[in-house]
Design goal:
The protein is an alpha+beta fold and about 150 residues long. It contains four helices and four strands. It folds into two domains: about 50 residues; about 80 residues, Roll (Surface presentation of antigens (SPOA)), CATH 2.30.330.
């Protein structure tokens, strides 16, 4: 491009910008200024609101009188899985694949030892096997305290 062509392109560009901005450049600048002022006012109002907020002091739930009136109705219909565990053992896959009907697997519990009662995989009690109406059941002999269950989770 020659120097004349660059000059003409520059003049055309300037003319187009002037046409587009005729009568609206002052309005656009005013609108822009108003928008900036509104944003500034909103930010300062938000900071003032945040500073004016006060937070309620948290109380220890164990000592509050409301802790005695805990509403358990919310969770009473939540399903859980309860299971009884006679014992456990570890064997390698070779021995596992050799098991068939009539095989005996030795467990880590002695005969007469209480079974573990698990709720969703968490130990909650110990008990002994009973038969009720031709079905197996378990009589709880020892219930694990809440503090002991929390220690097991940690």
């Amino acid at each position: 491009m020659s120097e004349d062509e660059n000059g003409e392109l520059g003049d055309d560009w300037a003319a187009a910008m002037n046409e587009q901005g005729e009568g609206s450049s002052d309005d656009a600048a005013a609108d822009w200024g108003d928008a900036m002022e509104e944003q500034s006012n909103a930010e300062s109002q938000g900071k003032a609101d945040a500073e004016a907020m006060s937070f309620q002091e948290l109380e220890d739930d164990a000592n509050s009188p409301e802790s005695e009136d805990i509403n358990l109705d919310v969770i009473l219909d939540v399903p859980v899985t309860i299971s009884m565990e006679i014992g456990r053992t570890q064997i390698n896959i070779r021995n596992l694949l050799q098991l068939n009907q009539g095989s005996v697997v030795e467990l880590d519990r002695l005969a007469g030892e209480p079974m573990d009662v698990l709720v969703n995989g968490t130990l909650v009690a110990h008990g002994e096997v009973v038969v009720v109406n031709d079905k197996f059941g378990i009589r709880l002999t020892d219930v694990i305290s809440t503090s002991e269950r929390i220690k097991q989770l940690a």
